[in-house]
Structures
1.
Amino acid sequence: MHRTRIKIRSWAQAAVTVASNAYLTGFKTGSIYTGVLKHGCVPSLNCYSCPSALFSCPIGAIQVTLAGAGGLDLTAVHTIGARMIAISTSLPLFVIGFLTLVGALIGRAACGWACPFGWFQELLNRVPSPKFVGPKFLNYLKYLVLIVFVLLLPAFWLDEFDGGEPAFCKYICPAGTLEGGLPLAWLQPALRSQLGKLFAWKASLLAIILILAVFFKRPFCRWVCPLGAFYGPFNQASLYKIEFDKSSCIECGACSRVCPVSLDVPREVDNSECLRCLECRDACPKKLLKISMRRH
């Protein structure tokens, strides 16, 4: 049953990846799809600039809007509080609402079942190699990335034209480099001549993440991903939850060994790091974990 569950989830991740990146013409022409579907977002990271992407990335959409707010006429805005009000009214409320709805219903299950970059990291982790857990304190880094690089820098770090910088997409996002930067550089010869230090930095960061994924389970998701930071707190209040009968646990460790984010499942199941992948449930020999609906 456990192997069946892994296959089902892997197929689900593959299906979401293909469905959200079905504009194959983009790889033929080296262009980016800009049709009506790009006004909508997927519930996970999927780069807008990927030649085959049909939908927008929610983190990218939020950043671009915040960065655009940097171009507001601030002559009548004299305080930080007023600036925040001006920015908040221009946020793409449908994106925030969409992510909130997903989080309220299923928490981080979107990360475990529908994230192309998360799936790619899991595939890399299957490469035979020593496996490590990594320090727990790094889990908090993604909250800093969310606050600083996704929310604050795009709004307040202005260029010479008073426009903001989509800092996470521009300086960090390895999913964007893998799905957008590298394919476009390959498909557009003229673009390759313009690549410089920034592209080299992001390509190096991507390489580091991919190498780490061989030895650590989902390192980007656990330590860096701002979308995981957004969804994580919803695990404590979402409609869907996982229950665990701790009193009957025999501490065999089977559940923790299969966890894709290296949780100590008997003590950390369904916390803010849990992807709700259900592999722990199927690995448990006593069947002590189950899905339930939260009663508010």
2.
Amino acid sequence: MSALIAPSILSADFTRLAEQIEIVTQAGADLLHLDVMDGRFVPNITFGPLVVKAIKRVSRIPLDVHLMIEEPDRYLESFAQAGANTISVHVEACPHLHRTVQQIKSLKVKAGVAVNPSTPVSTLEEILQELDYVLIMTVNPGFGGQEFIRAAAAKIVKVKSMIEFRSLKIPIGVDGGVGPDNADDLLGIGADVLIAGNSIFGASDPRAAITKFREAIARSRRRTA
């Protein structure tokens, strides 16, 4: 599978959100990553289904909704109806993870599971075959612009091995401290979806930032051809 670029709107200018979404779309972004935070699971509050619905009206690319919230089961239907194409929940927030994943799928939405930096990827062993997507957090969730936690890179390698051992085709997303400077390394160890907020929306030229990501993906493709 070809790697994808997913700008995270957490770092966008919300006073110009439609304009910024169009800029990254024209530049070649594949997905929009939407971080939903409740102030309980993470120490920050962002937005809910109404904002997702508004973004859906102006976006020409799919919406990847990342629920950093407690009791996500209560809100899955609302986010699906708002226009989410993918919904990711945290293994740490779901005591009945299999049920949650099945609920997402019943809403005709792709189901992903995210794991925090300190959570062992062994927690994915029993659910991996049910997933459409795995999200590896490489910062502690809650705020944009954080530095990549280098120790988390080993988790990408482990999850890639788990997926290949089962002969599955599940993309691995990497979220946190991702930029053009480490994109090559991340792609080389198994990342499939590069989620980047500050390195795209915080750049002086978001189009040029996405071009650099595209160049990294092209290099990775040549290496594996």
